[in-house]
Amino acid sequence: MAPPATPLLDRVRTPADLRNYSGEQLKQLAEELRAETIDAVSQTGGHLGASLGVVELTVAVHAVFDTPRDRLIWDVGHQAYPHKILTGRRDRIRTLRQEGGLSGFTRRAESEYDPFGAAHSSTSISAGLGMAMARDLKGDDRQVIAIIGDGSMSAGMAYEAMNNAGAAKARLIVILNDNDMSIAPPVGAMSAYLSKVVSSRPFLSVREMMAKLARRFPRPLERTARRAEEFARGLLTGGTLFEELGFYYVGPIDGHDLDHLLPVLRNLRDAEDALPILLHVVTQKGKGYAPAEASADKYHGVQKFNVITGEQAKAPPGPPSYTKVFSNALIAEAEADERIVSINAAMPAGTGLDAFAKKFPKRCFDVGIAEQHAVTCAAGMATEGLKPFVAIYSTFLQRAYDQVVHDVALQSLPVRFAMDRAGLVGADGATHAGSFDIAYLGCLPNMVLMAAADEVELMHMVATAAQIDDRPSAFRYPRGEGLGLTLPARGTPLEIGRGRVLREGTAIAILSYGTRLAECQKAADELAAQGLSCTVADARFAKPLDTGLVERLAKNHEVLITIEEGSVGGFGGLVAHHLLWKGLLDGQTKFRPMVLPDSFIDHAAPKVQYDQAGLNARHIVATARAALGMAEAKAQPARA
């Protein structure tokens, strides 16, 4: 199918070109930008719905403000595809999320129009405030604009930043993109008119004059006058909360109507008052593309699709994903134990808990984008005898580390962490890779750590965690499909701290933690074909470590290799620490820990990423041969 005709968009090389367009031309440009976004994502897959919802807003902001001199920060960043098209990256937009291509999120290294990288939510106001403070200290006069969605406003960090910005009276413009109608009343002509009026310089000036006048009143009268003015505006526009945080509130306005957006943004740009401003715009996720508008998730994340029909490309049927296996395993446990509850942080579908919620609606809790709250709330549940499972991506659990340490581990509370997306994750890249949980949880006392080698093991670990009732536990599993193994109806609890040996050998021992076990088996076959006998073991547990297994492998083999889908300081470090204290690395045993490299790995197919990381079968073979002095390793693995 031919790409859409985009005569105005074809003339745009940088956002400065938009500033020569009339309002009517900008409307046409927005339609062309929407068509280009749809066509590009149909070929690459990605976050379509959020990007379609901000097309007009993207055009308006770039047309009114002097980007990149004025700093524009997109919260999360998955809605920034139209922004990328307008900022000199259109020629690469069909490489989105592909190896060597554009990131699916904003990224400082990619463009000067991306002043702050973001793939985790709710950071934009804090970053923007920091930029505004730096601007003021340097004596600059640039604008700072942060665009944040209503979902991201569920995170406490956003309110921490707003509270600080209000107290600092920093010149900062926050645009609240409300695409779920979760905050705003219906927008219309009156709301648009009021927004235009209250954002104008005369109104701002009169407001400041009245504020100065009120300060001359006796203190009780001053407070009464100030609150009367704020609450009167709040009654009309719904902005009382933001006013109380120290922001000047404007809105809500229709985020798809350039006749409303452009004059209001110009007024805010030209306002002379040094104060933070919040502009509330209402948009529709998936706007302008019927299949997205009709979809329940508004095409939040899509595979490649047919533009005309909206039908998404489907992979050939295969084994169930690890996420689905976890979901089914947790449901099986919950059917047998009514104390089991689940918690997620605005990711019910991503974590598989949407199915759990259908089965047990009163036992499934979505707390919004509030990972810190999720963990401490689970700790509170555990104190009352419930069995909480916090289902969370490894990369998002990082956001709640203090709560894991102080509220869970320190009190030895039996909160269970189901860590999805462990290891490398493909198209989402480094921001979503679960690289660090083994290291950051492995150092905590009282923590049981498990990693599933396959989908059956995952079921057993769900059952194991359900039985651990005296301390916290965590188990990790990757994105993607399992191996296609036959699944039991319900998992069987494992013996805590006990690994398993799958293959006995004499020369080389390979100890796997997680789903590299299949690659270990391939490596063992290849080494056996070269006359090198291998033992292959699955550790299952990083804590408590199966010390008996580790010691036996070290004593009875010339080479011991550990392998994990995690950073330095993880499972291999725990094994080395134990062996060193036992004196088992003082002699002939050659120990080689294989971990993710000390670098961030960009988006690519997972197999390619693991090849870049040096953690595939050929790298294990090369490591074993090099340890034996047989040959230089052809591909050097990352070393601790």
TrEMBL record:
Q: Does the keyword Ligase apply?
A: no
Q: Which UniProt keywords apply?
A: Isoprene biosynthesis, Magnesium, Metal-binding, Thiamine biosynthesis, Thiamine pyrophosphate, Transferase
PROSITE patterns for this protein: TRANSKETOLASE_1, TRANSKETOLASE_2
Q: Which cofactor does it need?
A: Mg(2+); thiamine diphosphate
What positions does the domain Transketolase-like pyrimidine-binding occupy? 320-485
- So where does Mg(2+) get bound? 150, 179
Annotated catalysed reactions:
D-glyceraldehyde 3-phosphate + pyruvate + H(+) = 1-deoxy-D-xylulose 5-phosphate + CO2
Describe the task this protein carries out. Catalyzes the acyloin condensation reaction between C atoms 2 and 3 of pyruvate and glyceraldehyde 3-phosphate to yield 1-deoxy-D-xylulose-5-phosphate (DXP).
Family classification: Belongs to the transketolase family. DXPS subfamily.
What name does this protein carry? 1-deoxy-D-xylulose-5-phosphate synthase
What gene does the UniProt entry assign to this protein? dxs
